[in-house]
Amino acid sequence: MREIYLSGYNNFVLPFVIGMLFCLTWCIxxxxxIILQLxxxxxxxxxxxxxxxxxxxxxxRDWFCDCLFHVKLWKRNKLLGYMHSSIAFGWFMLIxxxxxxxxxxxxxxxxxxxxxxxxxxxxxxxxxxxxxxxFFFLMDFFLLIVLSGIVLAIxxxxxxxxxxxxxxxxxxxxxxxxxxxxxxxxxxxxLAEGFTADISGGSFLTKSLNMVLHSFLSDYxxxxxTWWAYSIALxxxxxxxxxxxxxxxxxxxxxxxxxNAGISISSARRxxxxxxxxxxxxxxxxIDACPMGAVKANTKDSTVYLNRQLKxxxxxxxxxxxxxxxxxGKCTAVCPVGVEGDKIRIxxxxxxxxxxxxxxxNIGTDAVNFQYNKKVIQKNNNVSSSDxxxxxxxxxxxxxxxxxxxxxxxxxxxKAGAEYDVMDRDxxxxxxxxxxxxxxxxxxxxMIEKNTRIIKESGAGILLLSCPICYRIFKxxxxxxxxxxxxxxxxxxxxxxxxxxxxxxxxxxxxxHDPCELGRGCGVYQSPRNVVxxxxxxxxxxxxxKESICCGGSIGSISLGFDKRRPLTENALxxxxxxxxxxxxxxxxxxxSTFSRYADRPVNDIAEIVDKATxxxxx
Amino acid sequence: MMENIxxxxxxxxxxxxxxxxxxxxxxxxxxxxxxxxxxxxxxSCSATCPAAAFSGMSIRKVLLCLQRGKEKEAFRxxxxxxxxGKCTMVCPRGINTRRLVLSISRIYGKExxx
Amino acid sequence: MxxxxxxxxxxxxxxxxxxxxxxxxxxxxxxxKSGRLGGHVARWNRLFPxxxxxxxxxxxxxxxxxxxxxxxxxxxxxxxxLRDSYNIKLSNGISINTSYILxxxxxxxxxxxxxxxxxxxxYDQVIxxxxxxxxxxxxxxxxxxxxxxxxxxxxxxxxxxDEKARNSQCSKVCCITAIKQAIELKExxxxxxxxxxxxxxxxxxxxxxxxxxxxxxDYGIHFIRGRVSEVSENIEGKVIVKAEDTLAGKPIKIxxxxxxxxxxxxxxxxxxxxxxxLSLPVDxxxxxxxxxxxMHITSSPKNGIFYAGxxxxxxxxxxxxxxxxxxxxxxxxxxxxx
Lengths: 619, 114, 338
Fold this sequence. Notes:
- The complex is a heterotrimer of chains A (619), B (114) and C (338).
- Chain B has seven helices and two strands, in the order ββααααααα.
- Chain B is 45% helix and 4% strand.
- Chain B has a two-stranded antiparallel ribbon.
- Chain B is mainly alpha-helical.
- In chain C, helix 6 links the parallel strand 13 (193-198) and strand 14 (222-225).
- Chain C is elongated.
- With 338 residues, chain C is α/β, with parallel strands linked by helices.
- Chains in contact: A-B, A-C, B-C.
């Protein structure tokens, strides 16, 4: 080993050093700002989580799995996964091994930040020893990995369809500069190290390149310009990084511990919302996922564009995008870095100013006297059950407009011999979720309080809901100690499992549509499928479960008009009918009425299907 | 009510004087919500509204009040709106009533009705 | 050789047109998809405003078209356009060559179950105008017979003037039909209270206003201006109807034993399907598009193809008959000009 230059410095390191320092300062100040922007309670929670070994080990695991290996992307798309992880992990390893080399060979140079990056220029190591050749091999190997990723990236830019992406993001100008500088960093590094390899040593890649280059370019003067070019590419990349999508690389490092600390979005543009926006890698997975994408004009309303507008602080577009969204949550579900598109939008809505704030203090909650009806049924002794619990059925606003669901549910409750009463037979107070979705948290809280009081005084053991919109807010925001909250799909499943409903299986093919709020919103995927397959032959939609397509009727959208929703519904129907089912089954009154408007076959709620398949007198 | 010195009271005229109604705000509303004038007053929204029982909420009446210069009455009705979306569901004209309510809450009531 | 005119649809428009074509010495062929003639009118009981029995009209028309070629249970398989005529292939294998086609394909009643909130097909107390006429004819309907009926409601505009039901036009005849049916029900159940929930009463025809006055004065039928938006069921098995009394400006709720939905008129799917074979245009209301809505309501934009009756929009019986005659005259002058 010998150092070629005693000073350990050459002017060509300047672009890199300037870029690096700029980028580091920017990121540190940014991170500090975001942490300061967090509400005090959250900040404390964040710091505590950093000393908690459990969350810290999760942080480390997530850093590796998400930032370096892109595990989520691998699961979704192998080619994209390889592309991203080869660049990220390869680059990471180059940096790490570069540092190890500095530590091993020239420990006194550790404080010179350019040293590990341009190590080959400054230090010559013999590559004939085991130790030397090992490091040379590793460096060349990871460089090759990164280069393969870059090749894929270039192909993807030209033919995104080869990667299974129908649409991809249109890059902004800083994105493009970042992109081209990133693409050029590694070929330039290869070239620079190639020119230097006969002095510094090298392995299969650099050494062979060196030989090729020397066969027609045997001048050592070529060495310096390539090192300059390499450094300039790095410098440019570092300088545009804060203004381009590559900001996601440092941002995600902070997002992961914040998320693991359990911090949620509490402000439209600050704290958690801000770090999520900067963590968006503009990969465009959300563009294809967005149900509004069925109409091409809506492409620019997907989360990736919202994030871009948020960075640019374009108020008009931010408003437009956040009010249009159906809040189906699919972009959140598929996002590889965990940007919560729906919650960011609700936060934007919450930041709007209104001159009128609803006030429900005039609405009374007393004088509700529930009389739990119970049909006297001869019971089988072997029926063990939870039927000693009184069931309070809250059908919900939307169910009032699809009375068939309520009628089927009441019929099932009677067949099962449950002790039940209907909370809103004569209308009631809204659950508050629609208000919450409009970003008006205060009025929603008031409604939650009113309903909580009614339910707590009702003496019910189970609160049964037919509408997933209600179900979600009852699960997430209501505090009903001692009262079990069930969606009717879960309750029906329980009644069947307890032997309280005798169900006859038919041969009809039933496709189950996952309502957004029940599936992605509350994670209830299996209960409805269990029930449907007891009533008929369950078939799946081409997009189901987490990937299910919103029916288009969602009240999550504020601005999407009635006529604008039809293509979205038709697109969702096309996915549902892919396997030619006889009946479309759903578990949401809103989905039911939206689908039945345009469907070419019957659309039923799960309760209707089960009610038709069960006989009253079997027990 | 104005009380005069003899203890009689005379009510101000309850008739609507369209000459005195300022339509500027409603026109502003129509610019953002062209649907505001498409209501055919069928009453579906009022019948289904869960807030109707409490504050007499009816988006049909709100629109009418705003056009007749009775903003305070409109705001009183809207104070109980739960934004549940039932009216949007039943409206035969497909009017986006939820956004209408939000737009009214933003455009009107800047000074006095607060 | 006598000129052949193919009439698609054996409802009253088709029958009337055939009879007039016979009078003029032509040779009409009626193609009817169902097994009987008379269309919707044959399923009706009595007609406003004079309570004429519908059966009389259908039998008179059928009598007058005895000389025509009639294919029942027959559909159009396809139509080929030749140079100046059309080749029509029927589902029974027969193929006809003609220069003149008259569309009298009529309408369909809106499927009331699509208005989910009204609970048709869910509640046993909810029927449609079509069901009621059927009951007038046969006296058989478990939803009406053998029940104590004290309170009856009529919902106007079910699937009419309703963009959500994808049908934004007024069906024109439901208002007067509701009044007619309300009177008839009052005659059957003299003690019953009857409420009509309307959006606007559109009573435009001869003697319709008299009918309305009679319903109010002589039969005590109540009219409430407001569209029904919710129907629920109570424990006693009655339906609770919610509407707004828009004239009082207050929500209104009423418990009923029977609710009649006035299903509106929509263009029948078969009509648009057959029109599609000839690439005839469909108007924004979903009905077939005439070449002009004032002067040439019976003409299509295509040579030799004519319309009569409700295939171009909701119409009353007299209007339909008059249109059938006018279409025949139009065809006649076309043939004479040749």
